[in-house]
Write a structure and sequence with these properties.
Number of helices: 5
CATH architecture: 3-Layer(aba) Sandwich
Structural class: alpha+beta
Strand content: 35-45%
Helix content: 10-25%
Number of strands: 11
Radius of gyration: 16 Å
Distance between the termini: 35 Å
Shape: globular
Largest sheet: 8 strands, antiparallel
CATH class: Alpha Beta
Strand order of the largest sheet: 1-4-5-6-10-9-8-7
Number of domains: 1
CATH topology: Protein Transport Mog1p, Chain A
Length: about 190
C-alpha cells in the first residue's frame, strides 16, 4: 500500500513545484506543458494528457507531464494544477506495471490509519468494465476528495486537495471535475 501513496505523493509534489530541479530527481519527470490554457469557453480548461489515455476539465491552467520510475518500472501520466489558494487538482494514469496497484478496499483503511484523518463518503460502483471508488478524507487542516477508476488493468486517480477554508468553493465545483473524466477516443 505504501508504494502506491509514495508514488502518488511524488506526482502531487511534481504538480505543485514543477521546477528544473525535480527533472533530475527520481522518478524521471518529462514535462509536456506548463501552465497550459485550454479554456472551453466556460472558464474550465480541457486538459488532454499528452501521453496518457484520458482528458479532464480543470478550473485553472494546468501542467501536463509523465513520470517514469526506473527502479520500479512505474510510469504515470499526469495533468494537474494548483490555485493561488492552495487548491490542488490532479488526474493521474498509473500505467500497467509488474506490481498491481493496491486493492480499492485497502485505500480507505490506509488513509484512516492516521488518527487525525477522518474518511467518509466511501462509495464503490461498477459501470460496464469500470470499477470505481470515491471518498473524502479530512483532518484539521486539509480535505482530500478522491476518485479512483480501474479499467482494463489501468488505474486512474483523480484528486482535489484543499485547505479546509476553501471547502465551500470546491464543493460547488468538485463534481464537474470528477464527472469530466473521459478516455481518449482510439484512432
Amino acid at each position: 500500500m505504501k508504494p502506491f501513496f509514495q508514488h502518488l505523493r511524488i506526482v502531487l509534489i511534481a504538480i505543485t513545484v514543477a521546477s528544473p530541479a525535480i527533472a533530475t530527481a527520481q522518478p524521471k519527470l518529462e514535462m509536456h506543458r506548463v501552465g497550459a490554457k485550454a479554456d472551453d469557453g466556460s472558464g474550465w480548461h480541457l486538459a488532454v494528457s499528452s501521453k496518457g489515455s484520458f482528458s479532464v476539465l480543470l478550473p485553472i491552467p494546468f501542467n501536463d507531464f509523465t513520470t517514469n520510475d526506473a527502479s520500479t518500472g512505474e510510469t504515470s501520466h499526469v495533468v494537474g494544477a494548483r490555485s493561488s489558494e492552495g487548491i490542488k487538482f490532479s488526474a493521474v494514469e498509473l500505467a500497467r506495471a509488474a506490481k498491481p496497484p493496491p486493492d480499492f478496499d485497502s485505500i480507505p483503511k490506509s488513509l484512516a490509519a492516521t488518527p487525525a484523518n477522518k474518511v467518509s463518503d466511501v462509495r464503490r460502483s461498477t459501470k460496464g468494465e469500470a470499477d470505481s471508488l470515491t471518498l473524502t478524507m479530512a483532518n484539521t487542516t486539509t480535505t482530500l476528495y478522491m476518485r479512483c477508476i480501474q479499467l482494463g488493468g489501468v488505474r486512474y486517480v483523480l484528486t482535489i486537495e484543499l485547505p479546509n477554508a476553501h471547502r465551500e468553493l470546491v464543493a460547488a465545483n468538485k463534481d464537474k471535475f470528477f464527472e469530466s473524466f473521459k478516455l481518449k477516443a482510439k484512432s
